[in-house]
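Q: I'm writing up a methods section and want to include an example of the input and output format. Could you take the sequence below and give the corresponding predicted structure tokens, formatted cleanly so I can copy it straight into the document?
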Amino acid sequence: MKENIVNSFRIGKYENQKDRPLLITLKDQGKRSDILKNARNLKNFRHDVSVHGISIKPDLTKTQQKEERILVKELRDRKMKGEHVYIKHGKIVSAEPKVVESSE
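A: Here is the clean output for your methods example:
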């Protein structure tokens, strides 16, 4: 994996006892996609101390960050109302099971 890393550095100003994000630049887009696709698997290891509190997210522009915050707020509001929804490809999608009627 180390051979795929071009550059890595901490973002933000150092403050005692405060975590800072680590920005990692990879050689190819394919490896980046693989890592982001598998990032959700970290929650399966939530009891493992070595990965506790670690999350992996793509680096977003300020505009994308703002759009993401708005989307997540709307998602939370809709979930509080009892809707079964999730975010997929930047949009809120219903997770309600579809009823398929037979043609008999």
